[in-house]
Amino acid sequence: MKKHFYSDLVNLDTVVGELSMLDVNSEEKKELEELAHEHLHETILDAILSELSDRDKKIFLANLEYETHDRVWKHLNEKVENVEDKIKTVAEILKIELREDAKRVKGGS
Amino acid sequence: MSKKRKAAQKGSKHYVKLKTHWQKKHKELRQTVRTKHKQAFEWMGEKVPAKEHLAGAAVGALMLTNAMPAVSANIPAPIEDNVPEEQIKIDKTDILLAHMSAILPAEVKSLSAEQEGLIGQTLSEDFGIRVSATFEGKKLNRSYGFIGAEQHLMRYPGDIMYSHLNSEEMSDKYIRSSGMAPGRGAWGYFARSKAEMADMDVQREKWYLAAPTFLAPGFMDNVKEHYEWFKYRKMLVVNPKTGQAVVAVIGDAGPAAWTGKTLGGSPEVMIALGLHQGPRKGGVLYYFIDDPQDKVPLGPIRAGDYNLTVN
Description:
The complex is a heterodimer of chains A (109) and B (311). Chain A has 109 residues and is mostly helical. Chain A has helices at residues 13-20, 26-49, 54-66, 69-79, 83-107. Chain B has 311 residues and is an alpha+beta fold. Chain B has helices at residues 3-8, 13-36, 38-47, 50-53, 60-63, 93-103, 113-127, 161-164, 167-170, 173-177, 199-206, 223-230, 267-272; strands at 131-132, 134-135, 138-139, 144-149, 208-211, 234-238, 245-253, 263-265, 281-289, 299-301. In chain B, helix 6 (93-103) runs antiparallel to helix 7. The relative contact order of chain B is 0.15. Classes of the chains: A mainly alpha (109), B alpha+beta (311). Chains A and B meet through helix 2, helix 3 and helix 5 of A and helix 2, helix 3, helix 5 and helix 6 of B.
């Protein structure tokens, strides 16, 4: 998986663990993992963008496109209070949701 | 039944059910995010050519309908491990332009203190050198304004165009036709005589700015101190429309306020900024460079050329 600026803060291990309980082959599991990561990425971007002014949204997106993770963090730490906690929180909520989805699929089989 | 759906149903039951659910969820979320932050994504779409999103960039996933594989377009060449951090060069013109477009007002005008500070910080990070609008308690009346073309300056008594330009410079029509100013610069000649002229003097005249030091806050309270401080003060000048930039020194006073210009540039400075054609005028940012060890030479500079802001 691509390393994102938040990759050291958040992982999807528990979701991946839940996928292991399903009747899926390794390729299917990998594909589901990728979908979960894409969903996480968009969820985190949405949470961050919602905290920023119009100008800082643009700076954040530009930094994300071109810059090092250090610079992304420097900008976010200056502009968003407790940004790490906010990222962790939305990620935890999403993880619960994704695990529930997987459990439901398993229960319904 | 769509091809997509048929393909999805080829897998196991758990896989098909979960994938279908997550794809739907993902599509809805993406739609919501794009709608919620529409202006920022549209701006990004305009600033970043679509092909650059193929480089596996983090925003790319959100900009494209489908996730794309990572390819090598526009990815900087790998950096050797043994290159000192200070010497690592990566062209950051794109990020500079994106930042300037996000921060700068639509018209060329005086910046607020907040804008000035934010731009100083951004330029420092993008160019990798420390710059600020206020330095050692001194500042010019503006840090964003129109620069206009100036003539060459006499470097020593008796300097004329024929002796001033080398054969290569003489062959450049713009450099040649700019002519020589009839008087000396505000700080006199750059050298006392041709024999005493050092390379530094040549470089200072070549890359000189005319700045309205007489309009600087506090100038009239202590003329001598300001006069000495501004002499050959090193500045970063940036054309925010193109990202072209130059390191230059203040070598003359001017232009007058009535001209509508807030800065003047030598013919070489104007070429470096890409403003030597047409009206020979354009909006530029100009910030003082904090370079006590004189590590940044005069002349054109590119965002990413230095890494001197690393603590």
